[in-house]
Amino acid sequence: MDPSTRAVFDLGRVRDAVAPVLASHGITLVDVEWTTERAGWTLRFTIEREGADDAGGGVTLEDCADVSRDVSSVLDVEDLIPNHYNLEVSSPGLDRRLRTAAEFARFLGRTAKVKLSRPAPDGQRLLRGELLEAPEGQVAVLVDGKRIAVPFADVVEARLVFELTSQSKPKKGQRQGKEPAKESGQTRQLAEAAPRSGSKRSERGSEKRK
């Protein structure tokens, strides 16, 4: 898509417009992105439940669908986005991105992958290991038993690593009980609204012309 077609609008105004909706559901906004994909422009909200202590954010598919419906209604009324787009609402996922120093501090002790813009002191550009406490403005990772600290400004991208816990195999002749399916590191709760346009499209898909 030609970059010149990119819509010009204030994501801050979008955040402010949807804040009451999220609060009413007991939901916190983790991030909002405006990005182009093969299907066109996408406005993506990443959410979690207030006070959640798990990486996935404590939200369900039903939560995402409810928030998507109500956010869609608000965006229709406020009319802040001038062109065609798709609306997505999702949880952070078990491999959630770490974007701020506060998020690094929140998940101390968890395994993460940290991609750097320049090599760490030992020459690595990709650190994988346990997140450790670090001075302000730095990120520290325990890699193969060695503590490596780098400037926060050098972090290009960081994600938690979801690790499956190993289970003992049942003895011969012993049937293993069924367990709930485990969520993979890439799985996220996701709700998508119908495609939206400058002539808006509602959650039910009916168009409303300007």
Helix content: 10-25%
| General shape | elongated
Strand order of the largest sheet: 7-6-5-4-8
Q: Helix and strand string, N-terminal first?
A: HEEHEHEEEEEE
Largest sheet: 5 strands, antiparallel
- Judged by helices, strands and strand pairing, the structural class is alpha+beta
Q: Summarize model confidence as the mean pLDDT.
A: 81
End-to-end Cα distance:
24 Å
- Give the amount of beta strand, in percent: 25-35%
Treating each run of at least 4 consecutive H or I residues as one helix, how many helices? Answer: 3
Low-confidence stretches: 1-5, 177-187, 197-210
Radius of gyration: 21 Å
The count of β-strands is: 9
Q: Can you walk through the features of this model?
A:
The protein is an alpha+beta fold and 210 residues long. 18% of the residues lie in helices and 29% in strands. It contains 3 helices and 9 strands. The protein has helices spanning 11-24, 61-78, 101-106, and strands at residues 27-37, 40-49, 86-90, 111-116, 126-132, 138-143, 146-151, 155-160, 190-192. The strands form 2 sheets. Strands 7-6-5-4-8 form a 5-stranded antiparallel beta sheet. Helix 2 links the parallel strand 2 (40-49) and strand 3 (86-90). Helix 1 (11-24) packs across helix 2. The chain is elongated and about 55 Å long. The two termini are 24 Å apart. Mean pLDDT is 81; it is low at 1-5, 177-187 and 197-210.
